[in-house]
Give the backbone structure.
Amino acid sequence: MKMRLRFMMLLSVSVALFGCGAFESSQPAKDNPSLPADQSSKENSDDKKEPVAQDVDDMKKEDSVIRILEQNLQYSVNGQEKENTAFLKFNDNQKYSMYVLPEYQLSAEEPDKDVLFLSEDDSIFMRIELLPQNSNWDTIEADAKTQLESISKDVKTVSLPDDPFFKEAWAMEVSNGDEMISSYLIKDSELPLKLMIFTKKSKNHLDPFIEMAKTIGK
């Protein structure tokens, strides 16, 4: 009788221990961070985040525009060939940058106009005006021609430089004694411009103004 009772007690203890072990092994996998299922879930989550960060970096690279601080320009003054280093200048008035040769200065004239002038003679200059992107070019051309005709009735069409900057541009000029006045309309969809260049036959700085104008960019 005592042997049977002792046997029943041992059997009860064994069943209890087995039950505890089964309970522990049946806990959800997520409670144990070392299990492969949890690790796989984390890796999948990280994989989804990485391309988003890469796309943002790529967009920043595409949106940024880097211009070097100086650029060599070749030009002629009164038929004399020259080459000099032009330095990058940022214009706060109309929010653009351009390369300016050492003999010239860039200055704001009005809220929507700037002047680039020869340091030793400010009567030789180029007026720079950024135009609205939805400009009516027929109206602007008519106004520019009328402006030139107020100086002289002998308005002439100007042959445009072979350069992408002057693609589909419009240009005319007049002369009055020693003075030469040229008007250029740059019909660029992103950066429409009106340039008026005032120079002299005896001191012709038209070419350096044109070379510097080519470098205008937002």
About this structure: Strands lie at 70-77, 80-91, 96-100, 104-110, 113-118, 121-130, 156-157, 170-176, 179-186, 193-200. The longest helix spans residues 36-63.
